[in-house]
């Protein structure tokens, strides 16, 4: 393990995708931000500004007060959603970042694609696989690049974990455990009149909002896609009467590798990903939240090595990758087709929770 460990952890935060020189970029990708919720204001806009490859130029939201507030703080053009959809200021941006409720992704992606703009859409892509396929088709038919916001894929900790797995440090992977939980009504706001609790806007709660993280990060780390899923959901508190408050699910990967995942919107804050192999365990803890430093450890034969590395701004890395790939003319790994596999898996978890039977992903509805 020592040689491989040293090789893959040297310069831990290296951008192995970067071929351009950030200092040489004079014309970064101009981004229109659609949706000005807390994540866009507190994380996306700062991430775009920190990236050498991107700059925000336009913002829009159904909440006119949010647009007014953001444009007062930053030198940005604010427009209404109707003005954005009409392309009124389309000459002021090259790409569109969409951070609206899940069920509204499609309409904004269709508008951006019709304008010939590259798209970075938050995950999950939409509320159903069918709507997600329409979204992907809109970009494909317009021949515009589509990236999906799987920020874990550009986080150096996740990329180094994948490197170590590829190098055989863990030996043969046998199973994965992943968990993600939060007290949503405490951390994201106590108001129960929010879109995550509306199944028509969200498509679901614990599985859709949190489950996509262990699902996609495990796919990325293993370099494989699940072939079967099973799941269970439950809701105990009135605020979650229409959606799933807690969930557990199993992802079956080729080679009889199982990923066992638990997620909750009403439990103590936690996030962890552990990959166990015949030779070692690789652990990310904390793993998934953008506002926490990631922890990285390797455990072998009773010896644990915790890696002390310089933390990065996770959203800066995501937007840097987005802008870099566009400027370099390179494709995205986390494209629309990649995201459709997640949509089928998420739908399969819900179907399994309803029927009590596992779902082969080729049969997921």
Automatic annotation (TrEMBL):
Lineage: Archaea, Methanobacteriati, Methanobacteriota, Stenosarchaea group, Halobacteria
Protein name: Oxidoreductase domain protein
Gene Ontology molecular functions: nucleotide binding; oxidoreductase activity
TM region positions: none
Record InterPro entries: Gfo/Idh/MocA-like_OxRdtase_N (IPR000683), Gfo/Idh/MocA_oxidrdct_glycsds (IPR050463), GFO_IDH_MocA-like_dom (IPR055170), Glc-Fru_OxRdtase_bac (IPR008354), NAD(P)-bd_dom_sf (IPR036291), XacA-like (IPR049838)
NCBIfam families (alphabetical): XylDh_Gfo6_Halo
Pfam families xref list: GFO_IDH_MocA, GFO_IDH_MocA_C3
Domain annotation GFO/IDH/MocA-like oxidoreductase: ranges: 158-282
Alphabetic keyword roster: Oxidoreductase
Native source species: Halorubrum distributum JCM 10247
Domain Gfo/Idh/MocA-like oxidoreductase N-terminal: 29-150
Keyword DNA damage: no
């Amino acid at each position: 393990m020592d040689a491989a460990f040293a090789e893959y952890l040297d310069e831990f935060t290296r951008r192995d995708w970067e071929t351009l020189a950030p200092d040489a970029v004079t014309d970064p990708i101009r981004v229109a931000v659609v949706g000005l919720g807390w994540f866009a204001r507190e994380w996306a806009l700062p991430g775009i500004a920190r990236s050498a490859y991107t700059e925000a130029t336009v913002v829009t939201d159904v909440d006119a007060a949010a647009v007014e507030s953001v444009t007062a703080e930053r030198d940005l053009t604010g427009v209404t959603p109707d003005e954005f959809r009409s392309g009124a200021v389309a000459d002021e941006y090259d790409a569109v970042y969409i951070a609206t409720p899940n069920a509204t992704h499609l309409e904004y992606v269709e508008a951006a694609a019709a304008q010939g703009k590259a798209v970075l859409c938050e995950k999950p892509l939409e509320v159903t696989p069918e709507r997600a396929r329409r979204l992907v088709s809109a970009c494909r038919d317009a021949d515009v690049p589509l990236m999906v916001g799987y920020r874990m894929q550009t986080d150096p900790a996740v990329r180094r974990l994948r490197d170590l797995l590829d190098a055989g440090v863990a030996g043969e992977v046998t199973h994965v455990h992943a968990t993600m939980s939060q007290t949503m009504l405490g951390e994201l706001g106590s108001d129960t009149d929010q879109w995550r609790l509306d199944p028509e806007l969200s498509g679901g709660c614990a599985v859709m909002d949190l489950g996509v993280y262990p699902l996609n990060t495990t796919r990325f780390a293993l370099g494989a896609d699940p072939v079967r899923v099973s799941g269970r959901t439950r809701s105990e508190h009135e605020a979650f009467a229409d959606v799933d408050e807690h969930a557990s699910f199993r992802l079956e990967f080729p080679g009889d590798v199982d990923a066992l995942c638990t997620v909750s919107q009403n439990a103590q804050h936690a996030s962890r990903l552990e990959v166990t192999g015949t030779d070692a365990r690789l652990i990310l803890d904390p793993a998934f939240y953008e506002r926490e430093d990631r922890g990285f450890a390797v455990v072998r034969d009773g010896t644990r090595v915790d890696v002390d590395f310089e933390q990065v701004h996770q959203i800066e890395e995501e937007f840097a990758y987005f802008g870099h790939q566009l400027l370099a003319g390179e494709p995205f790994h986390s494209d629309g087709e990649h995201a459709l596999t997640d949509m089928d898996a998420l739908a399969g978890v819900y179907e399994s929770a309803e029927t009590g039977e596992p779902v082969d992903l080729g049969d997921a509805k």
